[in-house]
């Protein structure tokens, strides 16, 4: 499969600490790729580097064949890279549909004076954007919540709203930072079904997660970090049996 995202030799240093140490990651187009590792493994730092949130001290990032190393997050977003975060970035007092509409900002074509006078062009474009947003809400089973305030939703539903807003930007790559964090088991199952459906409908997804069981059941490929280095990369069945992965999560058995 063709690589949509390729990161090679990425390094990030914090003073005397190397948080990410010569990491290579390749995400195939149309795949669901998991990034896992124990606490402090460097997962979020790595994704922050790839998505333009944090600087890259060394190494290269290629996206859709272009070198995008060091580009700011807003420029990567304009190229089709959408990102969610561990902590909520939603507008709690706004409706679900208004939150998801915010994901369409990169597709708005009208400018002043249309915005000042709310011209017919604005009306037409907003109607089109809302049609697109409703399609996303239906895809994630959120249509019935469209006009509810985000603050009224359960935590699991809010996480889906964040995902919907990212999808509304019509990304080429979805980067999800611990979407299952804090979810009860039933909501984790729903999330897994949603991510599989998105992959099957053509999205490419890179997801960071602590929930190994979730990723083992939904991912096409996984990359495992420990202490800033890649210790395993491959299909879930192979990663699961890796001695390095078992040791990273369970600790060394000195009696063995």
UniProtKB/TrEMBL annotation:
Keyword ATP-binding: yes
Organism superkingdom: Bacteria
Gene3D superfamilies (alphabetical): P-loop containing nucleotide triphosphate hydrolases
CC terms in the record's Gene Ontology section: plasma membrane
Ranges where the ABC transporter domain occurs: 5-252
Gene Ontology terms, MF aspect: ATP binding; ATP hydrolysis activity; L-isoleucine transmembrane transporter activity; L-phenylalanine transmembrane transporter activity; L-valine transmembrane transporter activity
SUPFAM superfamilies: P-loop containing nucleoside triphosphate hydrolases
Keywords: ATP-binding, Nucleotide-binding, Transport
PANTHER family, sorted: AMINO ACID ABC TRANSPORTER ATP-BINDING PROTEIN (PTHR45772:SF7), CONSERVED COMPONENT OF ABC TRANSPORTER FOR NATURAL AMINO ACIDS-RELATED (PTHR45772)
Listed name of the protein: ABC transporter ATP-binding protein
Source species: Nocardioides immobilis
Upper classification of the organism: Bacteria, Bacillati, Actinomycetota, Actinomycetes, Propionibacteriales
């Amino acid at each position: 499969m063709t690589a949509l995202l390729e990161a090679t030799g990425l390094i990030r240093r914090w003073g005397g600490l190397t948080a990410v140490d010569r990491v290579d990651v390749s995400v195939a187009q149309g795949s669901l790729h998991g990034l896992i590792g124990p606490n402090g493994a460097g997962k979020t730092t790595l994704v922050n580097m790839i998505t333009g949130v944090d600087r890259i001290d060394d190494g290269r990032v290629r996206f859709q064949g272009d070198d995008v190393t060091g580009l700011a997050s807003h420029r990567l977003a304009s190229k089709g890279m959408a990102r969610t975060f561990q902590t909520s970035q939603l507008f709690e007092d706004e409706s679900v549909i208004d939150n998801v509409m915010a994901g369409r900002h990169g597709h708005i074509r009208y400018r002043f004076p249309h915005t000042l006078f709310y011209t017919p062009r604005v009306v037409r474009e907003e109607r089109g954007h809302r049609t697109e947003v409703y399609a996303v809400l239906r895809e994630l089973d959120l249509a019935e919540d469209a006009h509810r305030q985000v603050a009224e939703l359960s935590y699991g539903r809010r996480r889906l709203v964040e995902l919907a807003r990212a999808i509304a930007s019509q990304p080429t790559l979805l980067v999800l930072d611990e979407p299952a964090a804090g979810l009860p088991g039933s909501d984790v199952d729903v999330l897994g079904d949603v991510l599989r459906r998105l992959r099957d409908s053509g999205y490419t997804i890179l997801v960071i997660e602590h929930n190994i069981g979730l990723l083992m059941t939904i991912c096409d490929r996984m990359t495992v970090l420990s202490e800033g280095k890649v210790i395993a990369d491959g299909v879930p069945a192979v990663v699961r049996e890796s001695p390095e992965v078992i040791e990273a999560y369970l600790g060394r058995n000195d009696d063995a």
